[in-house]
């Protein structure tokens, strides 16, 4: 989207918001510092606002905190865009500019970055859990009973805008018109959970995506806007593969006949 297009539909500014439990990942902190420096010498979309919404989020208050952030943006600022970024994410300094450039108020009003969740696959037999990275790109699907829901899209093109039925809110850009349309139809319940037909609850971010679909508001993920997700993991032999460029050890020379073995030497970690 061009600067002239942005000015025609709003002030072009981006209200940043994040929820925190009083701690953040270092990768997130470093990414924010770099983004602020980059933004200050480029388009000033973030630093030109009165600062990000820093909302303390205790256990169980995720929905209320996300709704509060959106409500404050709409009611307290004229800013055109809203950007959620979770405090366990890492991202590039130009992430906001790339999301805004890819978005469009009418055709692509909600665009997310490429994020991955950690899905538990079961116990590892040693007190830990087996985890698998899962892209947060979701498409509509029906289960064996014919009920519709979300399913993971495992394959996707690189550096492309992919239209999806759902994604997470960990790195998500929203245009003002999309949030206002949801408010007019559903009230200030952007992230309130909804239920699947079988009674299971839908996560707050996918519930937001479902509300977008009720108004036919398109949702995209930009697979070129990459992130990292800080998670605690267990690693073991099942996760290890020998690197293709691993050096081949040089055999040690045979000691002379009758020589006593010398002391073992510690080998430093590579």
From TrEMBL:
<feature type="compositionally biased region" description="Pro residues">
    <location>
        <begin position="246"/>
        <end position="258"/>
    </location>
</feature>
<feature type="region of interest" description="Disordered">
    <location>
        <begin position="245"/>
        <end position="270"/>
    </location>
</feature>
<dbReference type="InterPro" id="IPR029044">
    <property type="entry name" value="Nucleotide-diphossugar_trans"/>
</dbReference>
<protein>
    <recommendedName>
        <fullName>Glycosyltransferase family 2 protein</fullName>
    </recommendedName>
</protein>
């Amino acid at each position: 989207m061009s600067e002239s297009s942005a000015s025609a539909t709003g002030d072009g500014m981006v209200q940043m918001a994040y929820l925190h439990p009083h701690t953040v990942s270092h990768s997130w902190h470093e990414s924010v510092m770099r983004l602020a420096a980059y933004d200050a010498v480029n388009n000033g979309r973030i630093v030109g606002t009165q600062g990000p919404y820093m909302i303390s989020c205790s256990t169980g208050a995720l929905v209320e905190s996300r709704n509060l952030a959106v409500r404050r943006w709409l009611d307290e600022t004229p800013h055109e865009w809203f950007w959620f970024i979770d405090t366990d994410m890492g991202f590039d300094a130009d992430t906001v500019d790339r999301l805004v450039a890819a978005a469009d108020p009418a055709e692509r009003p909600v665009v997310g970055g490429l994020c991955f969740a950690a899905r538990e696959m079961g116990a590892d037999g040693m007190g830990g859990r087996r985890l698998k990275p899962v892209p947060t790109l979701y498409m509509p699907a029906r289960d064996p009973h014919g009920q519709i829901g979300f399913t993971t899209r495992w394959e996707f093109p690189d550096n492309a805008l992919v239209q999806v039925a759902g994604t997470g809110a960990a790195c998500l850009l929203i245009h003002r018109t999309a949030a206002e349309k949801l408010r007019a139809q559903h009230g200030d319940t952007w992230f309130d959970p909804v239920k699947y037909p079988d009674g299971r609850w839908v996560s707050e971010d996918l519930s937001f995506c479902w509300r977008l679909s009720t108004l036919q508001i398109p949702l995209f993920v930009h697979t070129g806007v990459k992130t990292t997700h800080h998670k605690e993991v267990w690693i073991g032999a099942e996760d290890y593969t020998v690197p293709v460029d691993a050096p081949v050890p040089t055999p040690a020379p045979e000691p002379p006949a009758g020589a006593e073995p010398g002391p073992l030497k510690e080998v430093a970690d590579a």
